[in-house]
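Hi R.,

As promised on Friday, here is the backbone we talked about, encoded as structure tokens. Could you run it through your design pipeline when you get a chance and send me back a sequence?
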């Protein structure tokens, strides 16, 4: 029987009525015997010693919830849905991950691995759970450890090594890999069903990457051709990796231990085994890469939204003053922003030009979004389906809100051991199975352990080498521009260099029928994108009365495959021998990421991405005319290549005293595409804590983990903004009893540390619950009352489209909606902070152009704060936390809690809220090669 996690560790998700009905009719007993588990792997008898090429000295750790095993047979899925049982290693990293929230204060170096895995190379002989030679090959062995079931792949040939990596990936994530190769092609509903979530997901990504099969193949051909021997090696590695995946597909099909989702979605017959699981091909890897790159590594966009809010500001205040107001909210280069490179170095990029050239701002009221979905039938034609499309379009076309992940890195000069320490990792959301998977790969030219996106795990993408570790956070600098192409002849022809040119029509037709897994009634639609040389059409408008289409062009468009070379280098112990080599490898990654490095002697940082060199005078914030004078320098539309800023122009550093990143501003004068890089950012939660540790010196792994964990429970609004709000309110005695009581509760919470923590581990009740409820209710009320009267309702609404006012844990936000963990990245906390300080008469650098709270009058501002606080204090928990399919109305803890969002048939319980990386490393190397 599969191991079952005790119910005390997690809160179980409810089984849907649809699955309950199915369980009543399915013959579980008949299925269990043949489908419960794959063929048993051979227990290893030979001792496997910890690898001699490991220089971490037992001080490297990692964690990736919920568990390594992301595959489950049909019987295992049915047992999970009916009784909550878990397949082996499907959930065993979730408990330790969750427990850090209550256990970090008592942490010691000796107990770190109670909350993390030991990520040393190799597997001690007494910890070997199984060993196998996939497909009977003698040149590769996969050993899995007892604790987490992580595959440790060792090959004597390069081909065998990569074959093993593909085989292990399919063992752990086959269904997920299949889902995302279909997402990348815009074919998810035809593959997995027409559920609203599936419709929204495929629509969101198809807008960004409407590729044909020829486009996908061309990416591979071009990447190989441009990269010489490394390109050829990457192609050979990919071929071997695919062979491993397909070998597992064949073996699991004949052995009938493939993922049960294939049965539930109608691709396989659970009785006769009829049906097929399609082999993977090399273009599938590009489709997968396009999804990951779009979701986490493509900063920019939002130029049309920016133009709309600028025009609203100019309408409200006049052109000159309106522009000043808009720029003050945009905070392109706010002097109070927390920086990753904080030594004063300047890296100008994306700043405001002295005189803008080529701007193509829309006529007021003329902007419409380009339709994506046509020819709806059946369930695709319902109001709910159309609403899903609207939400997906809004998510895709808005300014990039995809940034997550954090990093804390301290130079050895300030640590107790004299060696650098790093605690870092990506926030990739919470899914079941997880998008990432753990692995160790050892073979000719490869030596690494860490996490890789499922289906792209021929190399470790975030992890450690023999004597160094690396990780990334999303950076978000602008590599996407919007062009206004003037229409000619009709709506599907445009002027390109003076010639009327036809747009390229690309479409994807999808249809679905009800299955056991998805009962959505039959339906179909066609997704259609019009492509130009300047990228896909996203909006229509008029500019000066001329009809235009607004297109988006990103530098990574048609180039998602290029980054494979950088990852290949990071896995190569003969390439990376120090911080400069690390930076060189990161320069080969065209996705927009912040990369961090630590070995036993050095730390380093590099910001990656193909930053296009824009024409002089072009303001990257707004649409420009699609004319030669405003194109990227030396841009070739056939290959979408151009001149890019040199590596030295990217924020970079070696051996700074410390680095922090939580998707904050990288460096002085380096403008990111997303709004909100101001005086209060969640990066401050890390910077304040690490700066204090560095000042004291003698930093340990325990202290750095504690700094991360403490910041992960902090309410940014309460820690950095609430004290100023209370200062205004307490400028005179509070006579209103309701407001006075609320002030006392908020002050007590602030004094206690402003954390969202349970009264005790597993209590599912917050300490300071009333104060948290009051602030959650108060924040949106006070922001609206503070700013809307001065801005006017139209401008206020448009600015909230550029930057949402709040991102509390209980809010529906981000790429995964509510229960997503990641919080406090996007919000108006900097605006409130600057405005309140200005009203108080305090020094403000880079302040807003106007004073808004009470029109700048302290007494009037105080009245606004008290009246909205009084209103918030009167709201019940049920009003503040209205409930959803998981939580009852008024359940504050549950509203905040994290859910492993199901991408397959296995469900997991929700865990207490933490704002931290999904995959995380703790590293301190003791020696170097």
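Update: got your reply. Pasting your designed sequence below so it's all in one thread:
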């Amino acid at each position: 029987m599969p191991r079952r996690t005790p119910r005390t560790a997690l809160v179980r998700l409810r089984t849907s009525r649809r699955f309950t009905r199915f369980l009543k009719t399915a013959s579980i007993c008949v299925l269990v015997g043949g489908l419960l588990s794959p063929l048993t792997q051979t227990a290893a008898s030979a001792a496997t010693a910890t690898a001699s090429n490991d220089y971490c000295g037992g001080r490297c750790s990692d964690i990736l919830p919920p568990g390594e095993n992301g595959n489950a047979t049909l019987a295992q899925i049915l047992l999970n849905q009916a009784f909550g049982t878990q397949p082996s290693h499907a959930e065993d990293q979730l408990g330790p991950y969750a427990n850090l929230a209550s256990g970090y204060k008592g942490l010691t170096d000796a107990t770190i691995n109670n909350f993390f895995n030991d990520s040393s190379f190799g597997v001690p002989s007494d910890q070997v759970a199984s060993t196998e030679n996939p497909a009977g090959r003698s040149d590769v062995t996969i050993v899995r450890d007892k604790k987490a079931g992580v595959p440790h792949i060792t090959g004597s040939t390069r081909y065998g090594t990569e074959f093993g990596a593909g085989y292990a990936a399919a063992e752990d994530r086959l269904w997920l890999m299949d889902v995302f190769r279909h997402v990348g092609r815009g074919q998810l509903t035809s593959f997995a069903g027409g559920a609203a979530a599936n419709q929204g997901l495929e629509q969101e990504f198809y807008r960004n990457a409407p590729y044909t099969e020829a486009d996908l193949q061309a990416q591979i051909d071009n990447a190989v051709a441009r990269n010489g021997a490394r390109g050829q090696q990457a192609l050979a590695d990919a071929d071997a990796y695919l062979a491993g995946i397909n070998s597992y597909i064949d073996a699991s099909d004949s052995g009938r231990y493939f993922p049960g989702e294939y049965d539930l979605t109608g691709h396989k017959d659970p009785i006769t085994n009829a049906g097929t699981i399609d082999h993977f091909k090399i273009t599938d890897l590009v489709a997968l890469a396009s999804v990951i790159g779009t979701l986490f590594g493509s900063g920019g966009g939002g130029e049309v939204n920016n133009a709309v809010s600028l025009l609203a500001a100019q309408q409200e205040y006049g052109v000159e003053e309106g522009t000043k107001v808009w720029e003050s909210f945009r905070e392109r280069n706010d002097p109070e922003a927390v920086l990753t490179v904080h030594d004063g170095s300047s890296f100008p990029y994306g700043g405001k030009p002295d005189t803008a050239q080529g701007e193509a701002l829309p006529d007021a009221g003329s902007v419409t979004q380009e339709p994506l979905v046509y020819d709806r039938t059946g369930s695709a034609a319902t109001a709910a389906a159309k609403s899903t499309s609207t939400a997906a379009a809004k998510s895709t076309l808005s300014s990039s809100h995809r940034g997550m992940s954090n990093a804390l890195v301290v130079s050895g000069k300030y640590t107790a051991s004299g060696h650098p320490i790093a605690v870092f990792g990506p926030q990739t959301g919470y899914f079941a199975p997880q998008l990432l998977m753990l692995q160790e790969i050892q073979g000719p030219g490869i030596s690494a352990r860490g996490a890789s996106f499922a289906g792209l795990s021929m190399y470790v993408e975030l992890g450690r080498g023999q004597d160094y570790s690396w990780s990334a956070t999303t950076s978000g600098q602008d590599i996407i521009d919007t062009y206004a192409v003037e229409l000619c002849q009709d709506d599907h022809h445009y002027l390109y260099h003076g010639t009327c040119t036809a747009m390229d029509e690309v479409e994807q037709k999808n249809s679905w029928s009800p299955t056991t897994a998805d009962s959505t009634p039959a339906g179909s639609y066609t997704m259609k994108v019009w492509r130009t040389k300047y990228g896909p059409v996203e909006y229509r408008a008029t500019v000066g009365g001329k009809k235009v289409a607004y297109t988006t062009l990103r530098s990574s468009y048609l180039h998602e495959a290029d980054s494979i070379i950088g990852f290949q280098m990071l896995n190569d112990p003969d390439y990376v021998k120090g911080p400069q080599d690390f930076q060189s490898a990161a320069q080969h990654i065209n996705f927009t990421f912040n990369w961090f490095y630590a070995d036993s002697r050095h730390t380093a940082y590099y910001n990656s991405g193909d930053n296009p060199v824009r024409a002089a005078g072009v303001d990257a914030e707004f649409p420009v005319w699609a004319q030669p004078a405003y194109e990227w320098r030396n841009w070739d539309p056939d290959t979408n290549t151009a001149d890019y800023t040199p590596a030295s122009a990217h924020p970079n550093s070696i051996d700074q005293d410390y680095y922090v990143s939580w998707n904050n501003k990288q460096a002085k004068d380096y403008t990111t595409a997303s709004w909100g890089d101001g005086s209060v950012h969640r990066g401050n939660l890390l910077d304040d804590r690490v700066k204090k540790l560095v000042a004291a010196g003698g930093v340990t792994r325990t202290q750095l983990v504690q700094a991360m964990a403490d910041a992960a429970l902090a309410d940014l609004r309460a820690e950095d903004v609430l004290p100023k709000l209370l200062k205004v309110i307490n400028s005179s005695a509070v006579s209103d009893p309701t407001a006075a009581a609320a002030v006392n509760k908020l002050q007590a919470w602030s004094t206690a540390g402003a954390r969202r923590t349970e009264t005790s581990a597993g209590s599912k009740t917050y300490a300071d619950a009333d104060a948290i409820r009051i602030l959650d209710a108060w924040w949106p009320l006070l922001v609206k009352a503070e700013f809307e009267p001065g801005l006017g309702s139209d401008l206020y609404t448009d600015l909230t489209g550029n930057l949402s006012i709040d991102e509390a844990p209980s809010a529906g936000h981000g790429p995964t909606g509510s229960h997503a963990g990641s919080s406090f990245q996007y919000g108006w906390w900097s605006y409130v902070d600057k405005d309140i300080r200005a009203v108080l008469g305090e020094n403000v650098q880079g302040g807003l152009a106007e004073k808004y709270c009470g029109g700048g009058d302290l007494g009037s501002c105080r009245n606004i704060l008290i009246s909205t606080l009084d209103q918030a204090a009167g709201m019940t928990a049920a009003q503040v936390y209205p409930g959803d399919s998981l939580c009852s109305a008024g359940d504050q803890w549950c509203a905040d809690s994290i859910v492993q969002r199901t991408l397959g048939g296995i469900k997991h319980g929700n865990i207490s809220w933490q704002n931290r990386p999904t995959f995380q490393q703790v590293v301190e190397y003791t020696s170097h090669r």
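One thing I noticed while checking it: The chain is about 35% helix and 15% strand.

Thanks again,
M.
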